[in-house]
Amino acid sequence: MKKTIIYSITLLMALSSLQSHCKETIRLAFISGMNPILNEELYAPLLNDFDGVTWRAYTNEESQELFKPENADTYDVIVFYDICLEEIPETTKQHITDVISAGKPVFILHDGLLTYNTWPEFAKIAGMKYFMSAQNVDDVPHGVSKYRHQQDIPIKVADKLHFITQGMDDTFTVHDEIYNDLWQSPDLHMLWETSHPESIRNIMYTHSYGKAKVVGIVIGHGPELFFDKNFKLAFQRSILWLTTE
């Protein structure tokens, strides 16, 4: 009991210290696919239970306006939770790389690993890539990635000292969708790992693209997962960490 109390006090002090370096209100742009109204049934409980954050959901088409230079200061962090298989204009690609490389933080959540699937540079932004078709990355061929629904996924915290993982159980199990045969950058820093034999080992990671911090979580199909205490804590602390100076 004494150890638990001390750990809880330490956690609260760390959270308070980090929040003091964050904006009073974090403005979150949530890119959620073709129909964000329907998708809100999935992720609204996750976002609405997060004090100090305001958010708006965007379709992919709407989100392309966000990256124009005149709009880049209207939000503090971008969450990609979107599957986009269509080509986007070259000017939009340039706006996206310009805004993010200049320091706009990014959260890649599950389906976000599939977005802009035919654009190789977005894989470098995300740090990982789920392939919807056979493609090359850095001249290395990759086949179509794999997934499986409704899996019990054992998770172990790989870095217990990172701010994002503080307060989580060292090991826990969630029920969600797994991905495998993904491309991943050699520069990722792993926060969560799994021993599931059909899943990619690295389940949560940090990364950087230019001056921007990036967090990625491979799982996130929901909706059950969005009520899991460790997942909610990971999401909230990731947003706080991303928006520190």
Explain what you see.
The protein contains six helices and 13 strands. It has helices spanning 2-19, 36-48, 60-63, 90-101, 120-126, 229-242, and strands at 26-31, 53-58, 77-80, 106-109, 128-129, 135-137, 140-142, 146-157, 171-180, 183-184, 189-194, 202-209, 212-217. The chain is globular. With 245 residues, it is α/β, with parallel strands linked by helices. The strands form three sheets. Strands 2-1-3-4-13-12-11-8-9 form a nine-stranded mixed β-sheet. Strands 5-10 form a two-stranded antiparallel ribbon. Mean pLDDT is 88; it is low at 1-11 and 17-21. The longest helix has 18 residues, at 2-19.
The residue ranges in which pLDDT falls below 50 over 5 or more consecutive positions are: 1-11, 17-21
Give the strand tally.
Answer: 13
Number of helices: 6
Name the helix and strand elements from N-terminus to C-terminus, one letter apiece.
HEHEHEHEHEEEEEEEEEH
Cα gyration radius (Å): 17 Å
Helix content range: 25-40%
Helix/strand/pairing category: alpha/beta
How would you write the strand order of the largest sheet?
2-1-3-4-13-12-11-8-9
Beta strand %: 25-35%
Using brief descriptors, characterize the structure shown.
245 residues; alpha/beta; 9-stranded mixed beta sheet; two-stranded antiparallel ribbon; 28% helix; disordered N terminus
